[in-house]
Amino acid sequence: MNHSVISIDLAKNVFQVCVLNEHRVVILNKKVQRQDLLKTVAKLEPNRVVMEACYSSTYWGREFQCIGKEVGLIPLHHVKPFVVGNKNDANDALAIAEASLRPKTVFVAVKTFDQQDLQSIHRIRDRQIKSRTALTNQIRELLAEYGVVLPISVSVLRREIPSILEDAENRLTTVARSFIYDMAAELIFIEKQIESKTEALNAILKTNDDYQRLKAMPGIGPIVGSALIAAVGNARQFKPGRQMAAWVGLTPKLYASGDNMRMGGITKRGNKQVRKLIINGARAVVNWVKDKTDGLSQWIRNLLARMHYSKCSLRWPISSPAWRG
């Protein structure tokens, strides 16, 4: 079997290129400038190129595919155990090559431009949601210093701020009213930005065949569906649904030694954002099964009768007939 492989330690301007032959012997491990990388890789005989799944790896993966190379991206935690000696580019490139040859190494597919667009919009939207959360927390904190206490709810805060600013009986000073007004305007601006990103996701998904199939599954709408498409791409790499659940970190940990074996909490491996969205979608399904009579709702109600709500929400995406289908 031919094990020859090209491994590349990515950087901004200077890249480390390592080549192993069919006997896993290093025949090349040198630095290459950015402008020379494609030409250098094209001249090398091995057809397989492996890199860490990190910053710019998707871009370079598409570039190498265009020159006829087979590309594999390896998660960082698969590479780290193979770094021997001091950390430097040469050792890192060799570790990537070694990790790529292990039988249990899981490769990440190179994203298409459509996947890249969806993922980029999601990341921008997530950052804006975090900014909104930080801003609303600060507004509530500042108002509490003047004796105005509001519940933890964005909708309540948005609704109450105008009446708070107009209330001459509260203890807000002129200066306080001014900066609360400015922060309220900032909140409105951020929410408009979040809404525009949501609309952008919806526009992309209108013509996406994968999403049209995904949305037939309860609990999956445009946000969850677009995140799945961006992260997974071609789902044929997973045979049963449980394999994908394990990939995203929803299956329980296994502790086994000799005759002792026990299950723990979920592994929380993989894409944190996708896992969070899947669980939120599952919780939405679980919340609305009370008066429904379909088979899925009855199955969930049976789960609720013997386990905690949170465990039921996790079990729905892993074990349900809809997920396996």
State which percent range the strand residues make up: 5-15%
Give the overall shape, derived from the CA principal axes. Answer: globular
Mean pLDDT: 90
N-C termini distance? 36 Å
What's the SSE pattern? Answer: EEEHEHEHHHHHHHHEEHHHH
Query: What radius of gyration results from the CA coordinates?
Result: 25 Å
- The structural domain count equals 3
The total of beta strands comes to 7
Number of helices: 14
In the predicted model, the low-confidence regions spanning at least 5 consecutive residues are 321-325
- Specify the helix fraction band: 40-55%
Q: Structural class, from helix and strand content?
A: alpha/beta
Largest sheet: 5 strands, mixed
Looking across the biggest beta sheet, what order are the strands in? 3-2-1-4-5
Helices and strands in order:
Elements: E1 5-9, E2 14-20, E3 26-33, H1 37-43, E4 48-52, H2 57-66, E5 70-74, H3 76-79, H4 89-100, H5 113-144, H6 154-166, H7 174-205, H8 209-214, H9 222-232, H10 241-248, E6 252-257, E7 260-266, H11 272-287, H12 295-306, H13 309-319, H14 321-324
Parallel strand pairs: 1-4, 4-5
Antiparallel strand pairs: 1-2, 2-3, 6-7
